[in-house]
Amino acid sequence: MKKGITLLLFIIILSACSQKQEENQTSGLLEKEWKEIEEESANTEVRLYMWGGDEDINTYIDEWAAPELKQEYGINLKRVPMDTEDILQRLMTEKQAGQTEGSVDILWLNGEKFRNAKVNELLCAVDKGEVGA
């Protein structure tokens, strides 16, 4: 289970560009030691935007993942139920307005929505690699 929580933490840190880093500074994250990343993440709040229609997933996030992140790393994970289309439109509007920092910390998307967001450059990315078709 520790591997799972560590992976979730790493994804959260990589995705939470809007809280501490601008896009052009994100690549430096990969050069940091894990301990430094943990220390910088302590006592922060990360909002996880996701479709809230599955009670089992909601329970998992609220009752297991969030408490584990808080206990292990001091991160306050807040689940924010959302409509995917509304959030993607919000990200597109922020991009078109020239904002360099988004209002969404981390976003849970399905494959098609993720691909569309990636192709439209709506996501913070460490690796500028191409998205497969």
Tell me what you see in this structure.
This protein has one domain: D-Maltodextrin-Binding Protein, domain 2, CATH 3.40.190. It contains 6 helices and 3 strands. The protein starts with a helix and ends in a 14-residue tail after the last helix. It has a 3-stranded parallel beta sheet. Residues 16-25 and 128-133 have low confidence and may be disordered. The radius of gyration is 15 Å and the shape is globular. The protein is of the alpha/beta class. This is Putative spermidine/putrescine transport system substrate-binding protein.
Portion in helices: 40-55%
CATH architecture: 3-Layer(aba) Sandwich
Structural class: alpha/beta
The coarse overall form would be globular
Strand content: 5-15%
* Element-level helix/strand string: HHHEHEHEH
Protein name: Putative spermidine/putrescine transport system substrate-binding protein
